Amino acid sequence: MPVHIRRFVCYKMLMRKLDSAVGKIHQTDARSFMRELPDAAFDLIVCDGPYAVTAHEWDNVSDIQHFNLELLKSFSRLLKPGAALYLFGKPDCIDFIDYRPFLTLQSKIIWYQPSRLAQGRVSYTNNYDVICYFTKGKPKTFNLDSIRVPQLVELEHRLRCERVPSVRNGKFGKTAFHPDGKNPGDVWGDIKQLTYKSKELVSREMLNTIQKPEKLMERIIKAGSNQGGLVFDPFCGSGTVPVVCERLKRRFVACEINPDYRRLAEERMTQAARDAEPIESLFENSSVGGNGRRIPAQACLV
User: Fold this and answer.
1) How far is residue 155's CA from residue 41's CA, in Å, rounded to a whole number?
2) What's domain 3-148+183-300's superfamily in CATH?
3) Maximum alpha-carbon separation in the chain
4) Which pTM value belongs to this model?
5) Which of 120, 125, 219, 295 is most buried, most CB within 10 Å of its CB?
6) Are 53 and 90 in contact (CB under 8 A)?
7) pLDDT score, position 281
């Protein structure tokens, strides 16, 4: 069989594997799983993997920088041209490595958390994580209007600034006050970390180590993908990315090697689907009461 035909057959097999993987959380090692996926498959990758700062088994990485570099190489192959990657980590997570041949670093977003309990005694406390925003070449999708945040200055003051000749005729002359808000910037202090009282918290074991707030993932997924787009989450954990993808009408592929975490994530997805069930479905198979009004099916079972 000619080489080009073998390549085509192999590609078709990989695409069928990808199609069968969509919408599922796969209990497997993400790095092995990625080798079996086709090139240029994803519109967005959200990677909240090891930080190499805790004693957890899943966080036992001796060299987090080179661990992340290997991930970046794999992600570069899997991303479509112009697609985005958001990589979570500590401030040094991509220090001293050359990622430039693979992806373009657009921003290092600071997720600011001043309420952390740990307090340094001989140095300054780390009050933030970084979210490294990469793209494969020039960004193709950045839905700013979907993630705008409230303006922090009064409208009258902003308009006065815009009327200053040096501003109006300068580099930022086309920048105008937007009624729906502003770009959230690269310091995100408006989304707080979860607490023991957070309703969305799946398990206390996951607090501040695994589970991220849905609002945080929602901002990333809204910004970096469109409805119907395909999102990859290689370290699924508690299932936040799949849950948000379902809500925002994005398709997803996710991996989680820990069977207990995968079970919790799937249970969470099932519950989220129930919570999102439209009210009209409550009246399917309903009965009619003596007053002529329809009684929800669930009420009929009581």
Assistant:
1) 43
2) Vaccinia Virus protein VP39 (3.40.50.150)
3) 75
4) 0.84
5) 219
6) yes
7) 54
- Select from 278, 299, 277 the least CA-distant residue to 289: 299
Tokens of 273: 């689907």
Q: Report the C-alpha gap between 295 and 119 in whole angstroms.
A: 56
The Cα–Cα gap between 197 and 107 comes to 32
Between CA 147 and CA 219 the distance in angstroms is: 6
Give the residue, 68 or 158, on which the prediction is more confident: 68
Tokens at residue 254, please?
A: 């996710």
DSSP 18: H
Whether residue 86 is predicted with pLDDT greater than 60 in this model: the reply is yes
Residue 227 has pLDDT above 90, yes or no: yes
Q: Using alpha carbons only, how large is the chain's radius of gyration in Å?
A: 23
Query: How are beta strands 287-288 and 294-295 bridged, if at all?
Result: antiparallel
Q: Give the Cα separation of 237 and 48 in Å (integer).
A: 9
* The two structure tokens encoding residue 91: 């401030």
Domain range list for the chain: 3-148+183-300, 150-181
Give the whole-angstrom CA distance, residue 282 versus residue 244.
23
Picking from 32-36, 75-79, 168-172, 182-186, which range would have the lowest pLDDT averaged per residue?
Answer: 168-172
Closest CA to 141 of 220, 242, 251: 220
Distance CA 275, CA 288 (A): 25
